[in-house]
């Protein structure tokens, strides 16, 4: 259980082991993403669907789409959506450099998101994914990072196209280690 939802994960899917702090992380992402009912939300690197499913209660299940490379994680996410009666949440399996491209979204009948949650692997976001994000221009980006160095590299091109860094919050999911999750909130600049 996490964020009021029930999850089942397979052996090859990622899930936070520190569930007390993971509760805080999910609550923070929900608060900062704050999608209005009916807004389209993308969850990039969605894994077994934690953020996508947590945001479906705000935007509406049919307005949330998760994107993930690992097919076993997508299968877990779909099963978790059904387990929590959020079957309208869609999950797209494949390389985000391809599946997030505007032409790929058009083929799937997907609209550009108003809010995007990004929780990439330690290496960060592929440059083609960043390029697609810049073209899609969501109002808000919530970037969850387990590696502040790669996060900073990823944030620079987003800031260069008009996003503003609004807030940063560390969340210590790994006590007594040098590792730290950081959540960044960005919004589209005005003028």
Q: What does it look like?
A:
There is one protein chain. The protein is α/β, with parallel strands linked by helices. It is 37% helix and 21% strand. It has helices spanning 19-33, 50-59, 71-83, 96-99, 102-107, 127-136, 148-160; strands at residues 41-44, 64-68, 90-93, 115-118, 140-145, 163-171, 181-188. Strands 3-2-1-4-5-7-6 form a 7-stranded mixed beta sheet, with helices on both faces. Helix 1 (19-33) packs parallel to helix 2 (50-59). The longest helix has 15 residues, at 19-33. The model has no long low-confidence stretch (mean pLDDT 92).
Short description:
With 191 residues, this protein is α/β, with parallel strands linked by helices.
Task: Name its key features.
alpha/beta; 7-stranded mixed beta sheet; 191 residues; 7 helices; 21% strand
**Sheet bearing the most strands, described?**
7 strands, mixed
State Rg: 15 Å
Question: What is the first-to-last residue Cα distance?
Answer: 43 Å
- Unreliable stretches (pLDDT < 50, length at least 5) are none
Q: Give me the count of strands.
A: 7
Number of helices: 7
Range of strand content: 15-25%
Strand order of the largest sheet: 3-2-1-4-5-7-6
- The oligomeric status of these chains comes to single chain
Layout of helices and strands:
Blueprint: H1 19-33, E1 41-44, H2 50-59, E2 64-68, H3 71-83, E3 90-93, H4 96-99, H5 102-107, E4 115-118, H6 127-136, E5 140-145, H7 148-160, E6 163-171, E7 181-188
């Amino acid at each position: 259980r996490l964020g009021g939802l029930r999850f089942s994960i397979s052996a090859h899917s990622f899930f936070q082991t520190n569930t007390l702090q993971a509760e805080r992380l999910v609550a923070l992402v929900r608060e900062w993403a704050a999608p209005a009912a009916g807004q389209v939300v993308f969850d990039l690197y969605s894994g077994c669907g934690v953020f996508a499913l947590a945001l479906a209660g705000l935007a509406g299940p049919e307005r949330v789409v998760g994107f993930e490379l690992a097919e076993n994680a997508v299968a877990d996410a779909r099963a978790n959506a059904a387990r929590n009666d959020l079957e309208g949440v869609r999950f797209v399996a494949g390389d985000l450099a391809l599946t997030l491209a505007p032409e790929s979204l058009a083929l799937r009948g997907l609209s550009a998101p108003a809010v995007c949650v990004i929780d990439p692997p330690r290496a960060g976001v592929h440059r083609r994914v960043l390029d697609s994000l810049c073209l899609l221009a969501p109002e808000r980006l919530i970037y969850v990072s387990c590696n502040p160095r790669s996060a900073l590299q990823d944030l620079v091109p987003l800031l260069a196209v008009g996003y503003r860094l609004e807030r940063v919050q560390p969340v210590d999911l790994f006590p007594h280690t040098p590792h730290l999750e950081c959540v960044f909130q960005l919004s589209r600049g005005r003028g």
